[in-house]
Design goal:
This protein is an alpha/beta fold. The chain contains 8 helices and 17 strands. The structure holds flavin-adenine dinucleotide. Flavin-adenine dinucleotide (FAD) binds next to helix 5, helix 6, strand 16 and helix 8. Flavin-adenine dinucleotide binds next to helix 5, helix 6, strand 16 and helix 8. Keywords: Electron transport, FAD, Flavoprotein, Transport. Pfam families: ETF (PF01012), ETF_alpha (PF00766). InterPro entries: DHS-like_NAD/FAD-binding_dom, ETF_a/b_N, ETF_a/FixB, ETF_alpha_N, ETF_asu_C, ETF_asu_C_CS, Rossmann-like_a/b/a_fold.
Length: 325
Amino acid sequence: MAKNVLVLADVRNGKLRNVTFEMLAAANQIADGGQVAAVLLGSGVEGLAEGLGDAGADTVYVVDAPELEKYTPSAYRKAFLEAHNDFGSDVLLLAHSAVGKDLAPVVAMRLSAGQVSDIVGFDMEGGDIVFTRPIYAGKAFTKVKVTDGIVIATVRPNNLPAPESGFGKSGTVKKLAVSFEQADLTTVVKEIIKKTTTGVDLTEAKIIVSGGRGVKSADGFQPLRELADVLGAAVGASRGACDAGYCDYSMQIGQTGKVVTPDLYIACGISGAIQHLAGMSNSKVIVAINKDPEAPIFQVADYGIVGDLFEVVPMLTEEFKKVLA
Ligand code: FAD
C-alpha cells in the first residue's frame, strides 16, 4: 500500500549526518510507490537541499529561518508540522539523535500518532511496517507495529543500510515561510557548550577506539588518540574512565551513555560490564585489549589481545601506519 514518507534531515554543524541518507533509503522502501520528502530545518540550510533528490527525496521542504538556528522543541515542532500538513505524510522518520529523540514525541502527541523509538531495522508485511528495536539494554530485540493512523519512528544511526546507488529523484525544493509567534518561541537557547574535542562523531563513527579505567589517567588516553588518528576513528570511553575523571562524560558509551554500532570497536582496558556492553555489543567487529584473560569483554570480542594496553596500542598504531601509509 503506497505511503507518503517524510524524513527530517539530521543536520549537525551545518552538515547532513549520514543517518539522513539511511532514512531516505528506508523511506523509499516503505513508500511502496508513494512519495518521499525530506525536511530541512535551520538557518542557512537551504544549500543542503542539493543532492537530496539523488538520495531519494521527491520533494525537499526547506524552512530556513533565524528562529531555527538552534534547536528548540516548540519552533521545530511548528516548522516540521507545517511540512507534514503540506505533504500529507503517513509515516515520519527522524534520527534517534539528540534532536530526533526530543522532537518525535512532541510531534507524535500533536498528531495522535503511534511512535516507535530507536529502530534498528524493519520489514514490510502486508502493507504494515514491522519495526525491530532493542530492549533490555540491547540483550534482546522486539518487533513492533503501529496498527492504526500516522506512524512516527526514530532511527538509530549506522543500522539501516545506506543506499548503494543514487535514486535519481527530482528533489524539488519547496520553501515554506513559517511565521513564528511568541508562543512558538517559549524556549530560548542562550549558548551551546561543546564538550567533545575529537572531529569524528561517536554515534556515526565507523571505527571507535575506546578506553576504560585501565588507561589509568587522562594522559593514558593519548596512545588511544594516536591510534584513532591513524584509523580516522572516534575516541570513546567506559563510565569507569569518565567517573575517574580521565575524560569527559560526552565520550561515555553504554546504557547511560551513547549507543554505538561501528564497523570496528577497539576496547582498551575495559572490563566489559553489562552496562558498557549495552552501548557497543552490536558493533560489527569487536577487538578487546585487556591484561586480565578472564575479563568479561573477551566473551563478546571477535578478537582478544591479552596484554598491557600501553604496549599493545602503540604497536597497533605503528603497524596500521605501515599498512595505511
Ligand atoms: P573496570 O571495570 O575497572 O575495568 C578496567 C579494566 O581494565 C579491567 O578489566 C583491567 O583488567 C583492565 N586493565 C587495567 N590496566 C590495564 C592495562 N594496563 N592494560 C590492559 N588492560 C588493563 N558503564 C559504562 O561503561 N557505560 C554506561 O553507560 C554505564 N552505565 C551504568 C548505569 C548504571 C545504572 C550502573 C549501576 C553502572 C553503569 N556503568 C556504565 C558502570 C559499569 O557497571 C562499570 O562499572 C564500568 O563500565 C566499568 O568501567 P571499566 O571497564 O572502564 O572499569
